[in-house]
Fold this protein.
Amino acid sequence: MSNTKSRSIIAFDYGTKSIGSAIGQEITGTANPLKAFKAKDGIPNWDDIEKMLKEWQPDLIVVGLPTDLNGKDLEVITARAKKFANRIHGRFGYTVELHDERLSTTTAREELFEMGGYKALSKGNIDCQSAVVILESWFEAQWGE
């Protein structure tokens, strides 16, 4: 693990109504939830996203790529997540990587429930925790190589 850099990375869990976010450090391989952005038909308030990116100044952005359990693209949401990733790159100039997020929401719900029972399971919490799961899974994939 000597080649691990200490980059800070923001992950997004893209959804058409809500987009969760998390920040993590590559050196520790851990992530923490940030905030959920409301989206109108998949489009966030880009000013809010820009404000967060300016505040945290990540070295890289990871966007969860929704697929079915076999890793195949889902009809609409997979393409829209890719478009969201392309827009972040195009608007703000960040390097963006897509990462398979197959089980992130299920894992996020389980983790939140363990931490705080049913009251922890708000939509925003789930989306941000999903972003945490996506990012920690991305870290594991980097280290597995």
The chain is about 45% helix and 25% strand. The radius of gyration is 14 Å.
